[in-house]
Every structure is written in structure tokens, then in C-alpha cells.
Amino acid sequence: MLILTAGCASTPKPPAYSLYDHDALAVLPFQNLTQDPGLAQELQDAFLARLVQLNAVPVIEGGRVSALVAREDADPASLQHDAAARAAIARQLESDVLLVGSVTSYSEGLSEGSPRRVKVAFSSDRYRWGFYENRTVQVMASIKLIDTATGRILWVKNAQGSSGRRHWVALPYDGDKESPPSEGWSAYLAARSEVDLGYTSPAADARAKRDRVPPGHAKGQSSQPVINIHINNSQSQQQSQTQTARAAASAGDSAANPALLHRTDPVFSALRANALQRAAAYLVSDFQGRGGWKPGMQVDEES
Fold first, then answer.
1. Residues near 112 by beta carbon (within 8 Å), at least 6 away in sequence
2. Which of 26, 53, 170, 202 is the most exposed place for a label (fewest CB within 10 A)?
3. Does some domain include residue 12?
4. Number of domains the chain contains
5. What b/e sequence results for 58-91 when a residue is b if at least 16 CB atoms lie within 10 Å of its CB, and e otherwise?
6. What is the pTM of this model?
7. Angle 83-93/62-71 helices, nearest 10 degrees?
């Protein structure tokens, strides 16, 4: 279903900060304060692309800026605070305004709801069991615009980009049963997350149903849940690894972290890309203004 909304039209308003009076802008390499080693560069590229599209000020090519920063033996962290280094770079680039940024936080979340019994179809009297799996990604960043002649901070912006997905996972559990699976439910979720995190394709679903039978599904199994067989007596170890991976994915250390979920899960990868683009769009929103404001346009007074 497509829902369209409409509102009162108004004359475009100017952006919070206008770039039109500047000669050239250079975007310095973003500092990365997260555990995702490629995030800062990707956010910078997305932001730079949107900034160029505004056509509000000449933007110096990113490769040229990066090459000069490398020759000056500078790094994103030092450029956040070293006014002399920024001024030297600005002189060589002939830029009267610099933009420095930081990616301050990155988190990935995965949670599973309790099993629930729902109708197969609205008018059907047949039921099935399943649960909702929630994935979320959040990117936080900040940027500031600096006058290269005076070192004065002209503008500051903080942004958050978020993306999420709620996915229904069907359980091979008898829909005629009114009571939910109980024994072994936590073990089932832990094993499923560790062994085959985020399976979404029909083939993967079929493989999961074959390899990991949820509690109470096998005939003649009443006390010990079948899932314990498939964990191969390493349930506690796998639960620990899963918890460690999730904690590491939400931690703020700057080291590269192989436990990041988006590296192996295509859904998390897509959510990450979406959150990154949303953060970039919000960072540039003050420059763009409403409706593509340009100098000379009549503007409405704030009501």
C-alpha cells in the first residue's frame, strides 16, 4: 500500500548555513572512532557526493585532499585539533573553508521475540508458529566547518542514521498446539544465531529446518529438546560467543572487529548502507535548505 501525504506549499527557506560566499571547500579525512574500519571513509564519500550535488561551492576533489594529508604526515585524529596543520593544508589547496568530521558510534542489534501462534491466512482456521527477529543498525557522526583564515568554527552538525528490519521466522512446530515451545527455546535461538545467523533464502530456511529442530517438534521427544543434539554439547560456548559478538558489535573501540554482523549477514549489510546514507543526508541537510534554496530567492519569514 502506498500512502501519500500532502501539506501546505510554502516558499523555500534558506539553509542554516550558506556556502555560497566561499571560494573553495576541502573535506578532510573523517576520523573513525568506531570498531568498523571502513565506515569513516564510506560516510565521507557519501557526504561528499551529496555536498557536490548542491553546487553551492567548489569542492576540492577528495583524492587530492587525501594525497596531501598523507604527504603532510597528518592523520584524521590530529587534524581534529591541530589548527596549524589544517592551515598548512588549506593554503596548499587554496581553500578558504575546511570541513572535518568524525564517525562517533556504530552499533548493530539483533533480538528475537517470543514464539507466537498466528493464523496461516486471515480467513483460515489453520495456525502456525514463529517469531519476529529484529535487526537494527545505527551510525552517529559529527562534522564542523572551519574558516581557514581565522580558525573559527563556523558551523557544527551532529547526525544519526538508523535502519531496521523486522523479519518473521516460521518454526517447524505443530500449529495445532496452543502452548508455545518451552524447553530448549533459548538453546534453539543461541544455536540458530551462531550456526546460521540471518538466513533468509528458501534454501537456507530448508537447511535450517533440517539441521535444527526446535523444541518439542520431534516425535517421542518430551523432556530433552532435540536442539541439544545439534549443538554438539557446546551450547554454553556458542551462547558465550554469540553474546561476545553482539557486545563487540555495539562497543566503541577503534580496532577492526571481525565479529561485526554485517560482514556475514546480507541483511545487516543492507541496513548498514541505508543507515550510512541517512546519516550523510542529515549532515548535508542544513546546507541544502528546503526546496533547493538559491541566493536571490524570495524567502518566507519564520512564523
1. 131, 132, 133, 134, 169, 189
2. 202
3. no
4. 1
5. ebbebeebeebbeeeebebeebeeeeebbbebbe
6. 0.68
7. 130
Three cell numbers written together for 134: 529484529
The reply to whether 199 falls in a domain is yes
Task: Please give the torsion angle defined by the CA atoms of residues 120, 185, 270 and 211, in that order, rounded to the nearest 10 degrees.
Answer: -80
- DSSP secondary structure string for all residues of 79-116: HTT-HHHHHHHHHHHT-SEEEEEEEEEEEEEEEEPPPE
Do strands 97-112 and 25-27 pair parallel, antiparallel, or not at all (unpaired)? Answer: parallel
pLDDT tens digits in sequence order for the chain, 303 residues long: 333 333 343 444 445 678 888 899 999 999 999 999 999 999 999 999 999 988 888 999 999 999 999 999 999 999 999 999 999 999 999 999 999 999 999 999 988 888 888 999 988 899 998 889 999 999 999 999 999 999 999 999 999 999 999 999 888 788 888 887 765 566 666 666 554 444 333 444 444 444 444 444 433 333 322 222 222 223 333 344 334 434 444 444 434 454 788 888 899 999 999 999 999 999 998 885 334 444 444 333 343
Cα distances from 215 to residues 118, 182, 235, in angstroms, run 18, 7, 14
Query: The domain containing residue 248 runs over which residues?
Result: 25-288
How far apart, in Å, are the Cα atoms of 207 and each of 15, 227, 265?
A: 53, 14, 16
Q: Return the C-alpha cell found at 100.
A: 572535518
The DSSP letter of residue 38 is T
Residue 190: φ, ψ to 5°: -65, -45
Whichever domain contains 214, its CATH number is 3.40.50.10610
Q: Please check whether residue 177 lies inside any domain of the structure.
A: yes
- Closest to 262 in 3D by CA, of 110, 141, 131: 110
d(CA 285, CA 192): 41
Q: In this structure, is residue 186 part of a structural domain?
A: yes
